[in-house]
Specification:
This is DUF4268 domain-containing protein. With about 325 residues, this protein is α+β, with helices and mostly antiparallel strands. It has nine helices and twelve strands. The strands form two sheets. Strands 1, 2, 3, 4, 5, 6 and 7 form a seven-stranded mixed beta sheet that branches. A five-stranded antiparallel beta sheet has the order 8-9-10-12-11, with helices on one face. α6 crosses α9. The chain is globular and about 60 Å long.
């Protein structure tokens, strides 16, 4: 006897054999697509890094690297190099040359197919290079269901040794204050995400800060919690030339008038990072019953900082001296 199924009909996944049906040209189509926010978000989800776009076709001597990004949680450089077809020695050399020239610490090589030799080369680089330098090899595919729109998919074929294990172990090993920080930012993201624009929410981590792009590489707005002193801080941060900070300082009166509140301006001579901050003392950062009110304060002031500072930093004309490889100062235990 045949039973009639009442289940919804299901489609069948089909892989597109030629990605050129969607991206006819690597440089003219694929690289610009990869630089889009949604594409970088998909790539970042695949490798476990929140990516902030810096620029395309970045010059390295007489050569140009495809994409340069920043890891939003560390503000360190991420190089992305892509190619159609299978991997070759030329692109392997380019990846290493561009990474050295741009001082990138995370290198992502994307191709349609990785040869065994080049997969082994990335595995060897991950074993042999200095700690903190990470190489990823990804194959890109296109899939669709029936006549649906094609959907991109990245497959990791090489990654840093124990990358997934180390990430899992870091989360599992969290205790005390670190667990509190992670829970605090997870709750903030859940609260803010539906109404966060123009802020782009990043993945919560067990640290005392959460940072957001403000429209120019080397600048970001951020939120800070100090669990010892029970202080909340929002601010604009930069690790570029001090001349940028001084130009903003010249606009202090106008900026604070637009903000509607005074800020603490700190140049930090001798250090790369400068900041402009607002602080709020609270009864207890650890009291999750008060988090909603704290999160509202954070979101309101972060949006205000973004609105006031973003157009100003975009027109600063001095040439930056470079990006720092340092995360925000750890003043919270």
């Amino acid at each position: 006897m045949t039973l009639n199924s009442t289940a919804q009909p299901l489609g069948r996944l089909k892989r597109l054999e030629d990605i050129r049906t969607v991206w006819p040209n690597e440089a003219l189509n694929f690289t610009p697509w990869l630089a889009e926010d949604d594409s970088l978000a998909l790539l970042g989800e695949t490798i476990g890094i929140d990516l902030e776009f810096v620029g395309r076709e970045q010059w390295v001597g007489p050569f140009r690297a495809d994409l340069l990004c920043i890891d939003s949680s560390t503000h360190m450089r991420v190089l992305i190099e892509n190619q159609f077809g299978k991997t070759d020695h030329s692109h392997l050399g380019q990846v290493i040359t561009y990474a050295a020239g741009l001082e990138a610490v995370t290198i992502v090589w994307i191709a349609e197919r990785f040869t065994d030799e080049h997969r082994a080369a990335l595995d060897w680089l991950n074993r042999s290079t200095a700690e903190g330098v990470n190489f990823f090899g990804l194959e890109v595919e296109l899939w669709q269901i029936g006549a649906s729109m094609p959907a991109p998919k990245f497959n990791v074929v090489s990654q840093p040794n124990d990358w997934l294990k180390a990430t899992t172990e870091r989360v599992e090993a969290l205790t005390g204050t670190d667990q509190l920080k992670l829970a605090y930012w997870q709750a903030f993201v859940e609260y803010a995400k539906p109404v966060a624009a123009p802020l782009s929410m990043t993945r919560p981590q067990a640290v005392h800060w959460m940072d957001f792009s403000v429209g120019r590489s080397g600048f970001w707005v951020g939120a800070r919690i100090n669990t010892q002193k029970n202080v909340l801080t929002v601010g604009l941060y930069s690790n570029l030339s001090k001349e940028f900070y001084r130009q903003l300082l010249h606009q202090k009166v106008e900026i604070e008038a637009d903000l509607g509140f005074p800020m603490i301006w700190t140049e930090n001579p001798g250090k790369k990072q400068s900041q402009v901050e607002l602080r709020l003392e609270v009864p207890d950062v650890r009291d999750d019953a008060a988090w909603a009110e704290q999160h509202e304060w954070f979101l309101t002031h972060l949006k205000t900082l973004h609105r006031v500072f973003s157009p100003r930093i975009k027109v600063l004309q001095e040439v930056p001296v470079g990006l720092s490889d340092a995360a925000p100062d750890e003043d919270d235990a």
